[in-house]
Amino acid sequence: MGCEIERKFLVVGDDWREGQGVLFRQGYLNGHPDRTVRVRLEGDRGVLTIKGRSEGISRLEFEYPIPCEDAAELLEKLCERPLIEKRRYRVPSAGSVWEVDEFFGENEGLVVAEIELESAEQGIELPTWVGREVSDDPRYFNSNLVKYPFQQWPEVRGIHEEVS
Questions:
Q1: Domains in the chain, number
Q2: Which domain, by its residues, includes 31?
Q3: d(CA 117, CA 6)
Q4: Is the peptide bond before 82 cis (omega within 30 degrees of 0)?
Q5: Residue 64 · residue 2 · CB < 8 Å
Q6: Which residue of 106, 112, 120, 130 has the fewest C-beta atoms within 10 A of its own C-beta?
């Protein structure tokens, strides 16, 4: 049985940015809170992932490689819209590796850092570019960013309207 234990934070600044990252396209076949089924293209790798309901920062997770052609067809023909498009960077810091996701499309402007833990009680050293923790805010779950993309959030629209 797989278990994902993960904390999620907003990112501030660009001090984390290094390298090219890997382009991800992902979609959801099922976005129910008790179970999500995700299809993802990670660069040239296809992946099917099944996740259970979050309990704090933990949840069941099962991940399986699938042919890229199958992943692409599932994304185009069966997944909910909009698809999640992001570039993932793996950023080492203080003996850990953080995954920083820079979102595009309807989630443009959102940058989130995640760190996977061995246990929910594990302490971590936060890099200077890590901002507010959003582990308990379901708006930041990728499956919810399909239903309510970042660009539609009132606080984000307000910022864009002020800049225009």
A1: 1
A2: 3-163
A3: 6
A4: yes
A5: no
A6: 120
Contact 52, 67 (CB under 8 A): no
Question: 156: pLDDT confidence band, cut at 50, 70 and 90?
Answer: confident
| Distance, CA of 60 to CA of 51 (rounded, Å) | 5
What single-letter amino acid sits at 24?
F
| Sequence-ordered strand ranges (E) for the chain | 3-11, 22-32, 35-42, 45-52, 58-66, 84-93, 96-103, 111-116, 130-133
Distance from C-alpha of 111 to C-alpha of 128, rounded to nearest angstrom:
15
Which of 61, 64, 126 is closest to 94 using CA atoms? 126
28 part of the active site: yes
- Does this model's pTM top 0.70? My answer is yes
Q: Please give the share of the chain, as a percent, with pLDDT higher than 90.
A: 84
At 4, the amino acid letter reads E
CB atoms within 10 A of CB 16: 19
Residue 145: name the closest of 134, 131, 132, 161 by CA. 134
* Backbone torsions φ then ψ of 78, nearest 5 degrees: -125, -15
pLDDT tens digit sequence for 62-106: 999 999 999 999 999 999 999 999 999 999 999 999 999 999 999
